[in-house]
Amino acid sequence: MATVRPPVVAGKFYPLHDTELRAEVTRLFDAVGDVRREPARGVLVPHAGYVYSGRCAAETLARVDIPSRVILLGPNHTGRGSAFSLAPHDLWRTPIGNARVDHAFLMALEARCPRAKREPDAHRFEHALEVEVPWLQVRNDALRIAPITVGTHVLSALLEVGAALAETILESAEPSLVLVSSDMTHYESASIAREKDAAALERICALDAPGLQEVVTSRGITMCGVAPAVVALAALSRLGARSGDVVCYTHSGEVTGDDREVVAYAGVVIH
User: Fold this and answer.
1) Model pTM?
2) How far apart are CA 26 and CA 204, in angstroms?
């Protein structure tokens, strides 16, 4: 019998029902307009409620060919489970339907990297990866996902897992997109958030994994997905990625009208 992870933030972060969810995702993609879709090695997209960050997610993913395998890297907001938690489920359900989990890929990563463990606890109530799945389902009916939460900030461990991830991708010999789910600065003014986030985004676009962690720490940047981003940058640099481009930057104040205390969102495409 298949094991299924049910949605936990449907009706909160995004619409509860299939028809409404498809319509919202399609509307946001259509609003981007006619942009060229190209293969990419990685993306960074936000994970707030669609009303706040959906436009930025759409502007980013609209520019990318979505392959059949997408490796999802996100933070562990709940503190449950292991430091590097690989989803053990067969399927992840959203209102749109079931997304298959790429067991073969995750098992290969677990075998290569003892730090990574297949276990459900970190994923049970985590929203950061769940909210990305409907965007991908709309764009690729043959989608397989490899969800990974990261719950440590120890740089040596992040770089080690990034190296193992790169080796596993190379060994699989199948096109893969590495998707990092992260919001940017939390609960500062829009102007301060923009200044701080520019420093982090510069390191992301340079594929500088250690530099990203250093600037986030030294500048007090409250980027919730810095750890999974470091893993991704370490992997992508080994896979031959060249640079990243910021395609979107916005914040919650654009919706609420209050710029005094915002959560900021960015979209980056890495080639």
Assistant:
1) 0.98
2) 28
